Amino acid sequence: MHRERGWAEPAAPGHAALIAMAMESRSIQDVIVDRLAAFLGPHTARVALKTFAEASGGRKAETLTRADVPAVLAALRPMLRTLLGRERAEGLVQKLAQELE
Amino acid sequence: MNAAPPVSSERGFARLLGLALLAALVLAVADVLIFLHGAEAARLWLEFLAYLAAAAVAFGAARAFEPGDHLRPAWYLLAVNLFLVGSLALFPGELLEGPTADERVRWAASLVTVVANGCGLWGMARFALTWRRAGLLLPGSAWRRYGAEVVLLGAALLALGPDILAMARLAVAGDVWSAAALIADLCDLTLLLLFLPVFLTAWTFAGGALAWPFGFLAASDVAWIVFDGFQTYKGLLGLSPAAAKFVSAFLHRLAAMLVLAGATAQRMALRRAEVGPQGPGGE
Does residue A18 lie within any of the structural domains? Predict the structure, then answer.
């Protein structure tokens, strides 16, 4: 591809920056539901998040903030352990925690 | 280097259903062809090997979980069930029934039958209770589910009732093989009651990877009960011996191949958890 000389090439955004940019446009609810839906299906993923968000701190799923994430993930952990096993459930919870940092 | 285009995950799971049906069909055709050629020993070994393969894959699904995980013993129990059901093929029929029946062989086969059915029932019960343990809700009200269970119980009694009565009469008369067959029938009856929670769990996970192992196990339950029903009523259908043999073999192998597909689907779902839905295991 042709590029004009003398212009500085814009720095490519790093992986973390890309995730951060994407995160701005996606709510915490969307991130968790997307991850869970791969296993539970979209409907049950939404219902599970709603149930466990309310159980963990009395919050509605759509109003979750980053401060609520540890409690919500802790509430989801037993369900994920039952369905995926302890090791994979921990891996999934860690991935979610990293994405939602 | 271009990466291979990602294959739809759901297509990968759906392919398992086609493969299970195809494997059951091929095994049933082979069963009938070998039967028609009179090579009974080869036929029974083929049946044993088909079940051994399904048991090995179920064993692999169990090993994919860690000790202490809820579904690990469930898959181990199904693996033992498949191995033992397959090993029953190696007990010579003439030593179990008829004038040359050997009492020791009948006791051994009876023990294998009871243990196999117990393991199958216990394993399926763990799958049936998964939703409760995970803290999920099944669709439909509790009353609707009770109603559906009553309908299923009726269907199971229709399929198994005559055989249960016949076996009970012989068992009361002291026949150990009939007592084992009676226990197997009662286990199959209970198995159909477990179909509903397993099926509804699959339904609950519709669109997700975990729908597939539960769905295949529910389908295997149905194959078993249709097999039992066919055994009870095949005399009324006016089928030729070869046709009856084919249907019987197809349903019997299908039940095993569906568990094999379920175990494979379980491993695919777990692999998805390791690498993520877009990763290489997601296909």
Answer: no
